[in-house]
Amino acid sequence: MSIAIEVKNVSHSFKDKKICDNMSINFEENKIYGLLGKNGAGKTTLINIITNQLLCNNGEVKIFGKNIKEDNKVLNDICVVREREFYDIEYKVKDIFKAYSYFYKDYDYKLQDKLCKRFEINQKLIYKKLSRGMKTIVSNIIGICSNSPITIFDEPTIGLDAVNRQEFYSILLESYTQKNRTIIISTHQINEVEELLEKVIIIKNGKIEVDDYIDEVKEKSYHITGKKDDLNKLSILKDRKPIKSFGNNEVYSYYGEISDEDLELIENLNIELVNMSIQDLFINMNKKEEAIYE
Ligand SMILES: Nc1ncnc2c1ncn2[C@@H]1O[C@H](COP(=O)(O)OP(=O)(O)OP(=O)(O)O)[C@@H](O)[C@H]1O
């Protein structure tokens, strides 16, 4: 297993607000990652640190084994795409492609033209005049065609309609099967990308809450339902709060391993244990406890 990006003990604060709190992640080579976190969780901040656009307060980042602060050239192996990248530019779409393709040595110009046709992007148009979704598509085309060993898509479906969202992900997968590379997709829409991902990273309160293979995450994410007194006997639910209560029954959301003792109790006490989707896990992890209306 080779490591494409090593994030080691990275911490970063904006004033006294801690955004990254001693984060360590190894992004393996040639895998597709989903980077999840609610609004403001720190996904973009982490991406900016990885690409050396932001100097972190503590910790280090290595790209293919080289420290980004010591060897700037390793950044040539990374392509980051985001919809807001070229905003306000008066250039034509084709000029933007020309300017950005220059940075990537394996850029696929033929594929760029094919994708423009597929997504009905007129390259002669002024970029500024494109719709929001069209702008996103331009960024995504650069990301796909870059063939960069590390390609990061920061919210790649902003403004895209359902058809174009699906189309983008299916083309991305095709491109990945043609040429393996490390792809990171930062998103809130896990259900849209689930089929594509090999590994999932969930950030919460500046920490890495989940970093695992998607199948493992699915296997270890549960809704646990039963009578309050029975559920209180499970050690995995100690000090946790239910996500729902109705009468004497409660529902918990749980992510992790379950001990044999707890599994036995679950069976004997007739407690219901059902796997939940990663989207549900993500939502439950970020649920606020306080009610808005009393
Ligand atoms: N340059 C900055 N100065 C001060 N605070 C910042 C700066 N950049 C980001 N932040 C704050 O850091 C936090 C994390 O922002 P970030 O953009 O990394 O989150 P995100 O997970 O990408 O969110 P979203 O999904 O909404 O794009 C936010 O509270 C944001 O306001």
Automatic annotation (TrEMBL):
<dbReference type="GO" id="GO:0005524">
    <property type="term" value="F:ATP binding"/>
</dbReference>
<keyword id="KW-0547">Nucleotide-binding</keyword>
<protein>
    <submittedName>
        <fullName>ABC transporter ATP-binding protein</fullName>
    </submittedName>
</protein>
<keyword id="KW-0067">ATP-binding</keyword>
<dbReference type="InterPro" id="IPR003439">
    <property type="entry name" value="ABC_transporter-like_ATP-bd"/>
</dbReference>
<dbReference type="Pfam" id="PF00005">
    <property type="entry name" value="ABC_tran"/>
</dbReference>
<dbReference type="InterPro" id="IPR027417">
    <property type="entry name" value="P-loop_NTPase"/>
</dbReference>
<feature type="domain" description="ABC transporter">
    <location>
        <begin position="5"/>
        <end position="230"/>
    </location>
</feature>
<dbReference type="InterPro" id="IPR003593">
    <property type="entry name" value="AAA+_ATPase"/>
</dbReference>
